[in-house]
Amino acid sequence: MRAYEGQFSDNRPIRRSREEKRRQLAELRQTLAGMKPHVSPALRASIAAKIAALEAELGERRG
User: What are the CA-CA distances from residue 47 to residues 3, 5, 17, 40, 54 (Å)?
Assistant: First the structure.
């Protein structure tokens, strides 16, 4: 079945408000801090990259 324009399955990023991004950033930081030592380095790197991207995005909007 094909998606119509504007449908959630259009494979587009979800638009989040500034407050939602701050909340997500806090959750990701908490997740990274609470990870066990045996968690894969790839997962750590992925979460760290997402944190950096959110920080950069929120930092750009402040300036």
Answer: 30, 31, 20, 11, 11
